[in-house]
Amino acid sequence: MRTSSTARVIRLLTIWLIWLLVPTLPAFQAAAFQIEFERVYGDAGASGDAKTIINILSSTDSERFHPVIAGFLELNPAMAVRYVTASTTEIYTAIAEDKEAFDLVISSAMDLQMKLANDGMTRSVQSAETATVPEWARWRTNVFGFALEPVALLISQKDFEALPLPRTRRDLLALIRDNPEIFNNRIATYNPHVSGAGYLFSTQDSRQSETFWRLAEVMGRLNAKLFCCTSQMIDAVDRGDMAIAYNVLGSYANATLPDTSNAKLITFEDYTHILLRTAIVPKTAQNPGNGIHFLNFIVSPEGQEILDEEAKLPSLRNNLINQLANRKPIRLGSGLLVFLDRLKKNSFLREWDAALIQN
Q: Which contacts qualify for 191-194: CB closer than 8 Å, 24 or more apart?
């Protein structure tokens, strides 16, 4: 039976009142860190009770993650989800320094999640659902991978009409060095000072390939442009403003770009880093049970299917990713902490600045 006009008006007024009341709840206090997006999903009645709200802090774009939230709320209609997005660096700051009371923290910066766990800032989660997460995708009972993410090259097809597609990083190095008229001021990559994920990719590249620093220097000589996030780089390449974007999140490009797009994704044959999107329940969680409840859902068979089919975020069991011959998984372990040592990090960033920022 359809809802009457009066009932619809009452519901809209209720939602409006809830939004007015929400900032007065403890979990909704003004944040010291920089928030990019914030929204409450779910039943308006549920969002008026702090105990029925799951507070999630995430680096995953809301558009990508919306199907997962919708799937969870379909099974849990009496609950609501407050979804807040921020950069991976801001997320770490929010938990490690500001002690924000989020129930679940999702990030593509595996190293920063590992540091939170190693520093005793995460809760142990032992459930039937998290026990099914493969050993390679979790660290103890504190950090859980739930989605795979290939790190790839994005090219502007208009600019490559007369150029061969690079198959390796050596190919890319030679290509941009020999064609400065095409690539000058038109190379995009992450700014590791701003992006925790960008810092992770750069440090992993430096460990994996001797070509990385030579590639960085050539990109620097051609005035590479630095970005905070993959979505901005994808848009810039799609418009043709940038000729290439180095180290973008492949699933974002695959999910957002139509077949007719100017942008094309390339996975290198020398290696393609595969990172894990990970989730933790922080010690500062106001309602940790809520965070565990959502975590159990995203690692469950139903949650994994939604990630693959609807959110276009490859699940842990995604066959296309797992069968990539050139895949190089970034291991979830204490080795990720090496480049987070303050002296090591400062030294790396100085070297990176010298290579990329030459003006």
A: 191/226, 191/227, 191/228, 192/349, 192/352, 193/349, 194/87, 194/89, 194/226, 194/228
Give the domain range for residue 117: 5-148+277-322
Contact 290, 54 (CB under 8 A): yes
**β pairing state of 80-85 and 53-58:** parallel
Co-location of 220 and 344 in the same domain: yes
Render pLDDT for 333-342 as a digit per residue (tens, 0 to 9).
999 999 999 9
Q: Is the dihedral of CA 42, 117, 190, 262 positive or negative?
A: negative
User: Which of 173, 263, 161, 299 has the alpha carbon at shortest distance from 224?
Assistant: 173
Tokens 């680096």 sit at which residue? 59
Q: Compute how many other C-beta atoms are within 10 angstroms of the C-beta atom of residue 337.
A: 16
The CATH number covering residue 256 comes to: 3.40.190.10
Residues constituting the chain = 359
Helices 196-208 and 110-118: crossing angle, nearest 10°? 100
Q: Kindly state the tokens that stand for 264.
A: 């094309």
Q: By C-alpha distance, which of 134, 104, 138 is closest to 318?
A: 134
**Which region, left, alpha or beta, applies to residue 109 given φ > 0 means left and ψ of -120 to 50 means alpha?**
beta
pLDDT digits (tens, 9 = 90+) for 275-312: 999 999 999 999 999 999 999 999 999 999 999 999 99
**Which among 253, 90, 68 has a CA at the least distance from the CA of 157?**
253
Find the farthest-apart pair of alpha carbons in the chain and give their distance in angstroms, rounded: 68
Contacting residues for 66 by C-beta, under 8 A, at least 6 apart = 41, 311
pTM of the entire structure?
Answer: 0.87
Radius of gyration of the chain (CA): 21
